[in-house]
## 1
Amino acid sequence: MELVGKTIGIMGLGKIGLAAAKIYKAMGMEVIAYNRSENEEAKAFVKYVTKDEIFEKSDIIDLHLPLNDQTKDIINEDSISKMKDGVIIINTARGGLIDEDALMAGLDSGKIYGAALDVNKTEPINDDNPMLAYDNIIITPNMAWGPVETRQRLLEIAIDNIRAFQAGKAKNVVN
């Protein structure tokens, strides 16, 4: 699927959501967002909308919300019914944001084209979780941040910190 011209709806525009919004905008996507407050920097390229507008207008919905009483199962049978046919759902935030039964029903009906989940309600995911049988769900083990290059960079930072400490020039010190 070509992303240029598609509408991405970001739910939760904190630091991570804002960083994602910048990437999506650079890919030529229209970026809309639902958030408790508006970020002045984001207003230059993000259109703030209501929760229902996210569901109704988005080709892709990207979740960056905390899990609380207001956000638990925010993706549910009702919200899915408001979504465009063929929507894609991405969740790298909290597993409890999605009602997994409603997600699978949406996938079965074709309402949802696919999902990318780095988090699930039960972690680690149970071997008998029916979502594992879906070809149109990508599930990562709550570490989508961990490509080989990222882990290598983290090791290099740790080694550099140790060497600096040994040389009497500690850095990245937490007080």
## 2
Amino acid sequence: MIRNTGEGTFEKDVLERKGLVLVDFWAPWCGPCKMIAPVLEQVAEEHKEEIEIAKLNVDDHSIIAQRYKIRSIPTMILFKDGKPVDGAIGMRSKDYFKELIRKHK
């Protein structure tokens, strides 16, 4: 399951979590963001024991987006034990995310 996060919950959802959390920085008007959403849903379902996925709407939560210097969307940042360790900008395949999980477990 993918959760929505923002200013009120980001710390608990991402920074205080143990293990891997992938944050998808997106916006409703972003075409590539809509295209990657089903890929992230599949990753969340197939790897639910290994990773959590959170979505952050950059329009609604610009303070967090600025903190992580988000300039293009979709941007995905992988956090491990609350620290950013990897990431990607733009469309990625399911295999990319599987490799990212394997690399950082």
## 3
Amino acid sequence: MDQLLAIRAFARVVEAGSFTRAAESLDLPKASLSKLVQELEAHLGARLLQRTTRRVTVTPEGSAYYERTARILKELEDADGAFNAARGTPRGRLRVDIGSSTASDVLIPALPDFLARYPDIRIDLGVSDRVVDLIGDNVDCVIRGGALPDSSLVARPLGHATLVTCATPAYLKQFGVPAYPDELKNGHRLVSYVSTANGRAMPWRYARQGERVEFKLEPCMGVNESNAHLAAGRAGLGIIQTFTYCAARDLAAGTLVEILRDWRPPGYAFHAVYPQTRHLTHRLRVFLEWLAATLPARLDPPH
């Protein structure tokens, strides 16, 4: 038995909560991973995991063993990371998750610069607006905007994005141009962005000269993916509130027109987020440093 590999396999099952997800994250067949855990249990003479057809739970013995071996694995990763950092050659696979429009409009256009600097780093980019489980999905970091309620995560600020309210010229010609946020309630068709976390429409936020207002308005349509949300506004389905970086090309071309400009809300914070328990590898460290230097200007382009 390769005990170190078996310990890594066991740790990933604990973190991922399933054999299938753990096997995928380690690039191992599920049968091989299961065998490693069984061999480790036989070696220790203790049941570490309780398996049923529906779930995997950690036994008290397994929990105690995980706590002790997690420290050992982290020390090994620290030693490997220090060695690679000393050689100055960050390398390996980096799993990053990011929202759809932020990927297409902000990160991906900037990535050629990062990969030119660090050609030995492979980035696996997960793109969606869904909320990911960093530990269970074995993600190194996520790039997200808004509040960060989970205190078990470390957040590195990446700057702020501005929100704009806009619609097509044809829509505004038909329904009129609101001069105040309150006028959105009077016969206007609103297309709201719907959170994938809770299924609720995001509130409409406005601010001017210290006055802040927030509306939970009934939309004519809800969309839970950021690029599709922009497409709905571009199609003339109604008024949308979106990030400036999403709408920049349409605003420049005149296919969308900004309204309520004097009521733009304060900046929307973005962060790179990673688990406290996740070892900060050399490749993740240089990626976070690059993000912090590169993204602020791209999140809030000139307008």
